[in-house]
Protein: Cofilin
Amino acid sequence: MSRSGVAVADESLSAFNDLKLGKKHKFILFGLNDNKTEIVVKETSNDDSYDTFLEKLPENDCLYAVYDFEYEISGNEGKRSKIIFFTWSPDTAPVRSKMVYASSKDALRRSLNGVAADIQGTDFSEVAYETVLDRVRSGTH
Structure:
């Protein structure tokens, strides 16, 4: 339970484990239910395109997302994969929505074990592929 009184739905944890352990999803979008009492799965996807993920981020509303981010290592080391947690809170979202999402984030984030980095996005430049790639490669959270 978060400071805002919002709980994490069991389905949210199941979907995350499917992504992390089963590689069943490429990304998961989470949001608050209609009563603003629970964090639920809004959508899952197997689409490998990062652009598809970005297209799912609403222009005027908040959400959380988990993305299985793959990237190349320089040299011949091949691909790596890191799970990234996104808090999407665009400047154009309603203030109330931004407040509820900000105060509810910890409840979800603490229950997701195995996340390599956290990205806070208020506009698309902060969640652009190159921005996330730089963050993952540098190892900063």
Observations:
- The chain is about 30% helix and 30% strand.
- The mean pLDDT is 92.
- The CA atoms of residues 119 and 132 lie 8 Å apart.
